Amino acid sequence: MRLIKGSEFYSIADSVTGELMHSGMEPFSQAETLYIEQTRFKNFNKDQLTVWDVGLGAGVNAVTAIKNAGDKKLIIESFEISKEPLILGKAIHNDTPLIDQIIENGSYKSESVTWRVFWGDFRDTVKEAQRPDIIFWDPFSMKTNPTMWEGKTLELLTRFGFHENVILSTYSSSTRFRGALIGLGWFVGLGVPVSERKETTIAGGEQAFKEFNISPLPGIYLERFKLSHTPFPSDMTSISLQSILSSKMWLDT
Predict the structure, then answer these.
(1) pLDDT-derived band of residue 15, with 50, 70 and 90 as boundaries?
(2) Non-local CB neighbours of 147 within 8 Å, separated by 6+ positions
(3) What DSSP string runs through 12-76?
(4) How high is the pLDDT of residue 3?
């Protein structure tokens, strides 16, 4: 990992692929758009919210959630393989004592916020996490971090049976990623454009989509799955193209 100082803000790049975190947009603005507004974070009618911050990185998404929590009690469960991006990311933050505490202890607690980090492989540590209300899905892309986009990883998002009431947001608009979620029973919708990305992805259970009046993908996207060579990850045996095409999320499109 390496820190890159741009003309307006810092970015963190993967040393091998050169992929940037928060590419092309000021990090906190991107987090606000993609992980606060898109997940309806402020509209959840709950006194306490549990957020899975998958791909802690420089800690921008978690800190943005804390800043937007208002009167809600907030539980943040972050997942990350390495402390390196968080250490480099101190240059991005104003509140470095908070980041120092996470780096040193892997946790932070105040009257309204409980934040802990699960260091290691998400596929192992997720078993220890609480059921989420919101998921920030923000690992590096498949090019840099293919494990996090494999079917066996994505299957963990439904194995615990919580997704009906959950909202997930990610920067990805990948057909294979969307297909995996749909095949597993999620509803998937078009997400807002962010930086150079013309669309992102919002997903959740049928109940969550109804509660927040979120529209599933338009029916025209059915053709993308039919024509795609990889409509879902190749390691998935639990779904098929037919399970994607026959999802009830298409009924009202």
Answers:
(1) low
(2) 121, 123, 153
(3) EE-TTT-PBTTTTS-HHHHHIIIIIITTTGGG---SEEEEEEES-TTSHHHHHHHHT-TTSEEEE
(4) 61
Please compute the mean of the pLDDT values over residues 90-104 and round it to a whole number: 88
**Alpha-carbon span 106 to 119, nearest angstrom:** 8
Closest C-alpha to 134, from 68, 84, 87, 194 = 68
Task: Give the pLDDT band (50/70/90) at residue 88.
Answer: confident
Residues 6 or more apart whose CB falls under 8 angstroms from that of 88 comprise 1, 2, 3, 12, 58
> Which residues lie closer than 8 Å to 2 by C-beta, 6 or more apart?
12, 13, 15, 88
pLDDT for 162 equals 73
Residue 51 and residue 61: Cα distance in Å, rounded?
Answer: 10
CB 41 within 8 A of CB 35: yes
What's the N-to-C CA distance of the chain in angstroms?
43
The phi, psi pair for 154, rounded to 5°, reads: -65, -30
- CA-CA distance, 113 to 98, in Å (whole number)? 12
The three state secondary structure string of 198-244 is CCEEEEECHHHHHHCCCCCCCCCHHHHHHHCCCCCCCCCCCCCHHHH
Q: What domains appear along the chain, each with residue ranges and CATH number? A: 25-250 (3.40.50.150)
Band the pLDDT of 135: cuts 50, 70, 90: very high
